[in-house]
Amino acid sequence: MRFVKVGWRASLTLVLVAAGLTSSGLPAQSAVGVAAADGTYRFVTKLTIGDPGQSGSTTCSGALVAPQWVITAKDCFGSSGVASGPPPRPTTATVGRASLSTSAGTVSAVDRLVPHPGRNVVLARLATPANGVTPIRLAWAEPRYGQVLRVAGYGRTATEWVPDRMHTAQFTVGWWAEQTATTFDVKGRVPANASICKGDGGGPAFRELESGPQLVAINGSSWQAGCIGETQTRQGAVEIRVDDLADWVRGTIVDFPLADGSLYREPAGTISVIAGGAPIWFDSVDEISATGYPQSWATVPDGTFGLLPAVPRNGTVVAAPHHGIYVVAGGAKIWFGSPQEMVDTGYGGIGPTIVPTRYLDTFPDVPRDGTVVSGPNHGIYVFAGGAKIWFGSPQEMVDTGYGGVPPAMLPTRYLDGVSEVPRDGTMVRDPQGGVYLIVGGAKKPFHSWDEIIEAGYADAPLTVLPARYLEGLPTVPSD
Description:
single chain, mainly beta, Thrombin, subunit H, 3 domains, six-stranded antiparallel barrel, about 10% helix
């Protein structure tokens, strides 16, 4: 039975009243986990809403997504809805401070709220930017059963009503059947009895990657097992997805267009050229000159580049000194062998955006899994494990979940050289939910998601392929 029935789980806003600390019907949380060390997870934010010590004042947590913007839960500001504009009560944000008794980071008033129209999410603008604190990037991949996320916040612990220090813990994403389009369940992992308590509402749930943390969700509601003042023994919590809100966040914060082929500079010093909506940074002024650009640029607010896509959009034509001309597809660079090939593929007359040679050298030559492509005299395909998998009809695209996705057009020469069998170790799924591992050109079924986790594929790319294609694969690997 799903444990998050409305009215059963507790909201996570910590309410401070003159006579003491009590729980209201509002939302907020705090992770009963491990005290965070100074200097760690500096993007985690504590929000104080209302005058401390006065009736109805509350605290929540949040995450810095740009130097002047924090993302958190709408419920932190009241259960009756939040309007765009100044917060209904005076609000301050403390950023970059694991221990609230230190002077690290910054403390700023919140001067504007921008609520999401259909989700329990709000962006809070800081009157003073939190310069010197690196914001967290929004994740680009949805949460999946068995994945491990870290949750952080400033709410209650097992022994403290109002802790001085941020606490964190690892949580595991729950079963897919318990997910919705906007929420998913989590359960404590390290420590196993970790819980999310009042005061952590709106706090971040994020992936810890070598490239840096990625924000997947914010804390929504919890059973609060083990939290001080609570008697519930049932474990688990509900997270609110934000990984799919990048366009909304970007559109709210960056309210002006950035033109491809133009140079921009953040006050902190980074200079980038925009290609396919993505910022491509230069490592020196000399590199700007070597790439053929004048040493002039427009200034944008700090944090702008972190809100933009990491790689150019599909169909972006790029070039670099000592390189040919390429089209970007699924984060890969696909070379044009001649001007006529550009014309044949539909890119004739499109001038490439010039990017640094150093940057282009790092691009792979094969689109990422799930990229939809086509080409002259070809059908439409989806990439999986370096192979092109053909769609037999428009309905098959719809059935597989790619209906309405425009294909990136690639040269015929390139597509002719792409395999039709995914490489070993590629994980794929049919439209009915069956999951397989490709081994030696054969499909090896997984019988449960626990089996996938035990085999080490919880975080592996998972590409949906047409049922017709998978039915045609053998079940025994070739010699």
